[in-house]
Amino acid sequence: YVVLHVGAIGFLPTFLEERDGFNLAAAGALASLFTVVNVLGNVAGGIILHRGVPRHHVLIAGFALMTATGFVMFAEDASFAVRYAAGLAFSGLGGMVLPSLIPLSW
Fold this sequence. Notes:
- It is built from five helices and no strands.
- The model has no long low-confidence stretch (mean pLDDT 90).
- The chain has helices spanning 2-9, 12-18, 24-50, 55-73, 80-101.
- It starts with a helix and ends in a 5-residue tail after the last helix.
- By secondary structure, it is mainly alpha-helical.
């Protein structure tokens, strides 16, 4: 989870500046929304687990969907809006995975 998330989101401001032409302030503002969406994904993941969805279902679905949205996020031929929406989905789905992983580390 951490490698996927930091690898994709950590370089986001650089991609927004160099690839999409945003200035540093705009790139930072756009990238900060990914953190908000990730936190919302954490809460959603906790709710899903609390409702009885098996942890392994959340992990498998989350990682599979993160993989799919990650490919779209870095697609050369996709528009900025499509790549940004895929990136937000990637971040939210990653947030849903985290509540499934934390109990496994105890």
